[in-house]
What we know:
Elements: E1 2-6, H1 21-31, E2 35-39, H2 41-48, H3 54-72, E3 76-79, H4 87-96, E4 101-106, H5 113-122, E5 128-131, E6 147-150, E7 172-177, H6 186-197, E8 203-206, H7 216-224, E9 226-231, H8 245-251, E10 255-259, E11 274-276, H9 279-291, H10 293-310, H11 313-325, E12 339-340
Parallel strand pairs: 1-2, 1-3, 3-4, 4-5, 5-6, 7-8, 7-9, 9-10, 10-11
Antiparallel strand pairs: 6-12
Helix pairs in contact: 1-11, 2-3, 3-4
Amino acid sequence: MRILHIDNIMIRRYGNTKVATGRKLFNGLIRNNHKVLEFSDRDIAHFEAPLNIKPLGFSRSNKRLIETCENFQPELLLLGHCDIIRNETLLEIKRLLPGLRIAYRNVDPLWDPPVLEKIRYRLPVADAVFITTGGEPLKQFLTGRNIVSYMPNPTDPCVEDQDNAAKTRFDRDLIFCGVGNTSDDRYPFVKRLHDTLDRELRFDSFGMHGHPAIWGRAYDDALAGSKMGLNLNRFEGWHLYSSARISQLMGNGVLTFLSDRNGLQRFFGEESAAYFGDFDDLVRKIRLFQADDGLRSQTAANGQAFYREHFSGERVVQYIIETTMGMPYSHEYLWQDESYR
């Protein structure tokens, strides 16, 4: 299938990139043998802006997208983080290519009002919407002509390229990476963990409490040297929701601690991840896995194997394609019942 993938490819970060869902989906498209082309709206806007005047670059990025579609003739547009692209542009492309379908995916949390605005903005043009939260909240985005579905955070062996489950030597025992906001539930939670555990094990957190966030190679190296990791969302209790951090931890074979409030037990049980109910439960389980490296290694290996099989970029992006195009499913996707129309 001819697919145009529109996302922020982060060319201008010159290698100091954040781990991007779009890159994993693009790799999955290639591995599934689709004819795929990338369009990076922010980078095109920057390169096309006369005299570095941003608004002129935005307009030209939209014109270049139309030109790209006329040249490439895609059957499907897959939209990621491409806020510069206007709906008017996408409607014009649909006019030029009457059989075209548009899929939009958003991996940000639904408790954040700007995220809701971004999703609602795309509803008039998107034939299908994919979100990393499941359940009833998805129904608010139904228009009567679209499909709204859950999607898991994908992993990719070219991105999550470590096998920490098999390692025995580490730089640290526990890691957490997440930009801190004092209004988040996890902000005081992480501080309390440091106060409790710092004398017992090597615990590093990045992005809050005076410790800068890390990206690019520094982030890769931090994950590669970590035995266990915390997958703490800003707020817990949203059905099937997790930040993309879960794919980075489990995909690399880092033993992953998950809140038991999000329903992820549906996908992987206690043999593949470490679930906790509250602070004391988390501390107890951290100590358990710290003391039993065989249990840590086996649980992490189970989680990595499961995640790489069922939530690979190839499988997630093929689900997006088949759902959007109304095709029969080529796999028994574990989450396919989390789809609404």
